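To whoever is on call:

I kicked off a structure prediction for a single chain this morning and the downstream step that reads the tokens threw a length-mismatch warning. I double-checked the sequence; it's 401 residues and nothing unusual in it as far as I can see. Pasting both halves so you can look.
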Amino acid sequence: MLPYEYMNKSILDKIGITFKKHRVKKSVNNIYYARYWPDGTLRWLFNINKGTPGFFAFYPVGDLRTKCIVLGIRLLVLCGGIWLFAKKCDDISVVDNSLLDKLLNEFECDCWSLFGGTPGVDRKAVLALYSNGQVNMFVKVPISATSDILIENESKNLEQMAGINLEKYIIPDSKYINRCLILSNLNDKGVKSTSKLDEVHYNALNELYEKTLKVTTLTEYLKLLSLDSLFESIGDISLAHSCIDAYKVQSIVTSAISYIRYLKREFGTHQVTLTYAHMDFTPWNSFVLGDELRVIDFEFFEKEISIGYDLIHFIVQYDIMCDKASLINSRVEVKKSLEALKDKSKALAFDDIDILINLYYLKHVSRYLPIYLNSSNPHYQAINQLEHWYNEFDRYFKTPT
């Protein structure tokens, strides 16, 4: 069995789906379509309800590009050309007493769609469960030991966030059962995804900051994160794949260590504000409905992170994922957005914006660079990330000699 076949079997077995003829609920439409990632592993498994492919449940319609894609796929469905996009699976069945079978029964749902997860060590599957054509809930299912830990962490993180009683920053209701996380649907009709920060984002982030802030010194924050020792350990990692540029990695590590020492020496007593942070706050993890900001995927949430981290991440990650980072200076846009938030937020009043941006990069790179270095087959977006980090550290982390 090839690696991608083994992964697909693991996903389907875990959830309780088979391509063989088996008992099927009469109310469940068992004509499904499968689309795969380039590596051959399952991306979506979905049926079509009233002309709408089920995988749309996982993606709110946002900018013009997304709307055009949605329209194009719907036209394929209407013209009978969905086979050009996905492979038809005639004999999809739900296995008796499986996870999916129990969920459909317990929550009185009559249909489902599956996102097979993004390839990687923390891969998880996500089920969308429907009733009368409407998505009732989502269920995250661990596929690996790493994703099992992440899903458990997300459950605890959502409990922590729920205790703050936020009004503009909306999170899903959740329930953790049998190592799976059941989440309410925040992707209602009228919800949109946007790649640009606006007043809704600023107001919601400000509300979160005001209710969770604490102040410390830069020396104490750097000690809390153990950044110097993290970068020293990164320098000792052997590259697992030749597509990673060893020179650029070493340049990042050297610049980071030198800059951390510089911060401690010159700005050690400098005040830095810490707040709760989502840590993966992006256009695809946040939606807007009226004056509400709806936010999902709290697996990496942390409680004591330099203020502005999520705002910076939102801009930088969108630029990198859309291959724009080499064409524009993300830092200019970040500084404008932090200044806009600073006008609204007392929490940001005393923090140095340039230092906040560099603290973001130190924290973010210290977390993800070891993952990329240890990957035997790094994704092309990892290469894009590395290139962006190298440019940032080369330009903005130079210290006086």
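Update from on-call: the warning came from a stale cache, not from the record. Cleared it. Sanity check on the structure: The longest helix spans residues 246-267.
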